[in-house]
Amino acid sequence: MREEIAKAVEYLLSSRRTVALTGAGISVESGIPPFRGPGSLWEKFDPMEYAHINAFLKDPEKIWKTLIAEMRDVLMNAAPNAGHFGLARLEKLGLMGTVITQNIDGLHQKAGSTDVIEFHGNFAWLSCLECGIRKEIGQVNAADLPPRCDCGGIFRPDCVFFGELIPPEALDRSQQASAQCDVMLVVGTSATVQPAAYMPVIARQRGAAIIEINPEPTPLTGTTSQVLVQGKAGEVMNELVSAVESLKK
Ligand code: OAD
Questions:
Q1: Cβ of 84 less than 6 Å from ligand 1
Q2: Is 60 strand, coil or helix?
Q3: How far, in Å, from the CA of 248 to the mean position of ligand 1?
Q4: Tens digit of pLDDT for each residue in 144-194?
């Protein structure tokens, strides 16, 4: 067993309360591109032009027909991978509590995690800019964009755009979970977007051990995290959870 995996196993088995923070990297093996780096979404769409709330409010038709249409195609067909299932397996073993995710794909819940905080919202849901009513994205007419509510208002995705605040309940619960954990597993995030990237810092300041799973080092590596297990989330989680399962028997 790799030294980093052995260390991670030791931390997980001795922890009373473990939480996870996940990012786009955990869904890459499900066929969803990340936001940064080669082949990423922000390489194709300038986030200030396509993902800022002011850009959406100025020209919702443009954003619906480009960024949202592309995300809809990718996200609606995606299924969880071994990374998501690994976190759900840890929960079944009593070794994983809250999963704080920056992802909007709903794949943790599909994999079986039961306590998921969606820090940046969920792409599967829309809300009307006028009356606030919510609808599932599959229920609106994709041929006529932007989709409109019965009241005439335009629907927006229930996701956090740049320039918007994190939903207060998600932020509060995430800060609490981070402050109360003994171990935080940080999987597949570049840790560059605030305030999500601050959660591991909160955890570390309260004495938790931080384990990263990522093919690349991040700004947390060597400063906030004690262990970086380098590799793809699905592969590493399989190795890690299998080791934990064999030792728990
Ligand atoms: P990023 O795209 O910034 O970072 C993805 C991370 O995943 C990088 O650190 C990669 O090295 C890593 N990675 C790539 N493939 C991987 C794999 N197979 N397994 C594990 N890790 C892998 O995504 P986030 O950190 O999630 O916000 O980005 C944070 C936020 O920025 C997003 O939630 C989104 C974006 O703007 C909003 O839209 C509000």
A1: no
A2: helix
A3: 31
A4: 899 999 999 999 999 999 999 999 999 999 999 999 999 999 999 999 999
